[in-house]
Amino acid sequence: MATKKLTTLCSFLATVSAGVVGFENEIYHESMVTVRASPNIALIKYWGKRDQILMLPHHSSISITLDGDNEVLYGDKNIKLFTTTSVLISNRLTHDELYINEELITSDDQSAHGLFRAIKILRDIADSREKMLIVSENLFPTAAGLASSASGIAALVFAVSMALKLDLSSRQLSIIARMGSGSASRSVIGGVVRWNSGLRDDGSDSFAQQIYSPNYWPEIVDLIAIVSLEEKKTSSRDGMAATVKSSGLYKERVRGVDERLQDLENAFREQNLAKLAKIVMIESNNMHATMLDTIEDLNRDTGSVIAGYTFDAGPNAHIITVKKYVGIITDRLSKIEGIKTLIMAGVGEGPRLLDSSDSLINREVLKPRDPSRAGALYTL
Ligand code: 2P0
């Protein structure tokens, strides 16, 4: 694989705002580096893959890499938008070890699959089998929609490549990070970044590039209003696969995205906030519309279809099932905070005549009957 000069890496270093601390110990054949990388926020979103193995997207995306030297205006002052990762390669190590947020991660941990994949690719390129100790920490919540996988994998790819003394171009780093997690391909670059989907089947033209430097429009900021730090219930990977599979709107999204990419680039070029704001909202709504158009697999835990949902114009869910599943579904719904009442109704008859004893009229006094007998009335 082609490599670029160290100067490229140094300018890359400046643009990704990744700090590197390293040392070598010739006696023990050791090298250690520490880097940091930040998450990014996509303004034209990546949602859906044309190749699940090579992690190739259906369309291009644009993001801004967030400044890790963020301010917290109110709330948890400790949140810092970067991942710090240290890698030690040493012949004193007898086996590999990877710690994320102080937890030892094993190769059968599904959520770290991308990290192990990226490490393997880098080792193969370096033709190295030396053991590694990798320690990675996020100072912001993991898997809560703040793109910790992007910064985590970007930091790891950058750190391991440096520790292995691989002189990789930003294009190569982006491709390797992509193989770990799609959005990580953009976090190995700073500024305003475009990940071109590419056309080739081997993915060699699917990588991210800077389109504007971090200083191009210094006034622009992202105010992140955090409402929940809980882990997402459905991973982006599963969610986007379900959208591609089941959403009829998705094809429309892909058709319209090139124009939005161009409009967003123009908005940045012109530093035009009104234009930028409109495009990012249209784009966000568009992605979420395809998510809403995705048939959520309610039935994934049971292995067979036990229910489907439908919503009318209001917020209340109607879950259509058969009686034998009512117990299991009620059990699950009872764990969802916010469901105050659960009503069960079968399929009913049309209008029917009631007895005179059910009359709401007191014929003797020609007035409504005592309303208390009609039961409580609810205003819905
Ligand atoms: C993005 N997201 O462009 C979009 C917007 C979430 C919504 O990239 O399967 O964790 O590892 O490639 O990168 C999140 O998806 O998924 C994501 P994989 P990833 O930032």
Characterization of the model:
- A hairpin with a 4-residue loop joins strand 4 and strand 5.
- Residues 1-21 and 376-380 have low confidence and may be disordered.
- Helix 2 (113-126) runs parallel beside helix 3 (148-163), helix 2 (113-126) packs antiparallel against helix 4 (170-180) and helix 7 runs antiparallel to helix 8.
- 30% of the residues are buried.
- This protein has helices spanning 6-16, 113-126, 148-163, 170-180, 184-187, 236-246, 250-270, 273-292, 326-333, and strands spanning 21-25, 30-37, 40-44, 49-51, 56-57, 61-65, 83-89, 97-100, 103-105, 132-138, 192-195, 208-212, 307-311, 317-321, 361-362, 367-368.
- The protein is elongated.
- A six-stranded mixed sheet has the order 1-2-7-10-8-9, with helices on one face. It has a four-stranded antiparallel sheet with strand order 3-6-11-12.
- The chain is an alpha+beta fold and 380 residues long.
- The chain starts with 5 loop residues before the first helix and ends in a 12-residue tail after the last strand.
- Helix content is 31%, strand content 19%.
- The longest helix is centred in the last third of the chain and has 21 residues, at 250-270.
- Residues 42, 45-47, 55, 61, 114, 147, 149, 181-183, 236-237 line the site of ligand 2P0.
- Ligand 2P0 is lined by residues 42, 45-47, 55, 61, 114, 147, 149, 181-183, 236-237.
